[in-house]
Amino acid sequence: MGQVEGSSRQQTQDDGSEAEVLRKGIHNSATPIRVGLLGVGTVGSEVARILVEQKDELQQRIGQPLEISGIACRDPEKVDFPWIDKSLLTADTKYVATHSDILVELMGGLEPARSLVLKALDSGASVVTANKALLAKHGPQIYRAAEEDGVDIYFEAAVGGAIPLIRPLRESLAGDRVTSVLGILNGTTNYILDEMTTKGLDFDVALKDAQAKGYAEADPTGDIEGEDAANKAAIVASLAFHTPVSIDDVTMEGITNITADDIALATAEHKVIKLLAVVRDDKDGVSARVYPALIPDDHPLASVHGSYNAAFVHAQAADDLMFYGRGAGGTPTASAVMGDIVTVARHIVQGATGPQISTYQKLPKAPLSSSHAAFAVRFCICDRPGILAAISKTFADHNVSINGINQDLKPTPHDPGYSGELQTLRVVTHRCSETTLRETVDDVCKFDFVVGEPSILREM
Ligand code: NDP
Ligand code: HSE
């Protein structure tokens, strides 16, 4: 693997007088800034391409050249991109992590990513990462390490791919008070729901299509069960409210129970179903939730189609802000990573760092019992007399007020009275406590006429 010796961050550490020079913003404009890449998959390979193809332009913008100093992955033999110099490839992740001025972590996962990022920070490197799982779990430890080591940690690509959202929360809105962020932060699930809505596809068919198009991974669990969006919600909530929020604080529901019936019923009411990540700071504390929601079809988030992402931010002084763009994919995500690399490189040239991540507030987490909404619950029932009475009594017993009920009418040409056939029954409630609603649904599910899992959708 080729090495670039004596570059700026290393000199800052090894040589006090050079560090002084760097702090004053004076630098040797010929000295390359070493960029080490951990991971050269979907995103990493595109970052490498841009670093190579736009080398001269990047140097102009930064004032010093960027040079890829090493690229680590598990199996360097199988990496074959025309723009990648094979002599840079290695399986030695630790070497790359500790011999860079900017370490770009694009491996994903918790370990060894966490240890390698911490090693890089300790070695004096700044870190750029797209790893939302890592930051949602270990963000505070990593932010603290960056602060203590006097280096940068940047992660624009971790939420919303190409969309500039982290920077606005971290810098542009630093003087405002953000009160909520509502986001479509997972492209795979938005694509699936959009295909179900616009083409009438069933969930399984739409999922296979998403996989064929490369949006969903071979194991799509993290996307469809809501964990990917939940990781992003944790990161956004921490930045928006200046308080630590981890993945363990986020409640999540995915979209696996959403059927073509749910979509059709929503469409009939001029609504669409979207998987939302919702973070709020209100009187009950900070909440971070991911759930499928019914939103009016004239809401700006309803027009976010395909694999696009969007975030709707409310801040006290700024009022409403909306961010929209490609939330995934190698090239769009590489755009955000490159923005971070240039920012961090400019800081190195200036002998400075960007703003640290401020999590000085230790706000309480809002309990689930404080969550209130109107809900639409779809049950599949085996039709027979008395079902409506039993279900409405259960809702009444829990003091949950019903706003409407509908059951699809099936033709009964021979008038059997009832046939024991499977029917969809949908109950829409008035606003109520989520905890109570769930207890009510659990009780309804104890009846022997309920078949399978109900779907629970929140009205926005
Ligand atoms: P890929 O799976 O395509 O690539 C991962 C790369 O990391 C591969 O080169 C792989 O090497 C390497 N790698 C993984 N684990 C190890 C390990 N233990 N040791 C050494 N190398 C390892 O991932 P993506 O490019 O899709 O994602 C990278 C990061 O970007 C993730 O954190 C992801 O969440 C994030 N992200 C991805 C987006 C996307 O659209 N893909 C969008 C936004 C963020 P090998 O192939 O040899 O195993
Ligand atoms: N799997 C994510 C999505 C992309 O579908 O949006 C990475 O954040």
* List of distinct ligands in this structure: NADPH dihydro-nicotinamide-adenine-dinucleotide phosphate, L-homoserine
Query: What is the arithmetic mean of pLDDT?
Result: 91
Q: Major beta sheet, specifics?
A: 10 strands, mixed
What percentage of residues falls in helices of 4 or more residues?
Answer: 25-40%
The assigned structural class equals alpha/beta
Low-confidence stretches: 1-26
Tally of contiguous helical segments: 16
Number of strands: 18
Strand content: 15-25%
Radius of gyration over all CA atoms, rounded = 25 Å
The first-to-last residue Cα distance is: 54 Å
Short description:
This protein is α/β, with parallel strands linked by helices and 460 residues long. It has 16 helices and 18 strands.
How would the blueprint of this fold be written?
Blueprint: H1 8-14, H2 16-23, E1 33-38, H3 42-53, H4 55-62, E2 66-72, E3 89-90, H5 93-98, E4 102-105, H6 113-122, E5 126-129, H7 132-149, E6 153-154, H8 166-172, E7 178-184, H9 187-199, H10 203-212, H11 221-224, H12 227-241, E8 251-252, H13 260-268, E9 271-282, E10 285-296, E11 308-315, E12 319-326, H14 330-350, E13 372-373, E14 375-382, H15 387-397, E15 402-407, E16 422-429, E17 432-433, H16 434-445, E18 450-459
Parallel strand pairs: 1-2, 1-4, 2-3, 4-5, 5-6, 8-10, 10-18
Antiparallel strand pairs: 7-9, 7-11, 9-10, 11-12, 13-17, 14-16, 14-18, 15-16
Helix pairs in contact: 1-2, 3-14, 6-7, 7-12, 9-10, 15-16
